[in-house]
Amino acid sequence: MDPEPKPMNLGSGEPSDPATALAAAIAERAEAQRIGLRHEVARSEPLFEQGRPLDRAFILHSGLVKLTYATASGEEWIKSLIVDHGVFGPSGQGPSASIAFSAVAVERSVLAAVPIGWLSREIAGSPTLAAAHARFIDWVRLRKEAREQALLCQSAEERYRDLLASDADLIARLPQADIARFLRITPVAFSRIKRRMRGG
User: pTM here?
Assistant: First the structure.
């Protein structure tokens, strides 16, 4: 468990990392049973839409996916980023429940989709998988808390400086508009921050 969690769903890629470990454990079972085989999605391809029923969870094997909220006025804000390895989809919802956010591939990505019912049964039937799932849930909770604290207690410039310090490689992979959406500011405000930081 990280002592200072980052405010996004980032895994280290190491086998012991909770996101990587859970994704690998689910993928191993799914592929053994030929459920949810890996496939590639193109950059900007939507994976699911906010407000639509969703009965599948997604395993990211490589690439970058953004999870977003759309406001009534049509603004898009990024709630989290799933980077290189991870699991995402409905949480604690029935198979016919509408999901509260959308998912879009930011870059070409490889992933698999598995039925929620199948995944729930696998977790319930395997103490090892259940333990990996519990570690992952706790890991995500800590990141959500860090994200909430950053949004409430830091300025947008402070949040951007922290991202540059901790995740410069990720920042280089994101379109500028997506960095602004993750910081929860407009692209114009983000341009002002960058100009100010350059001393211009």
Answer: 0.87
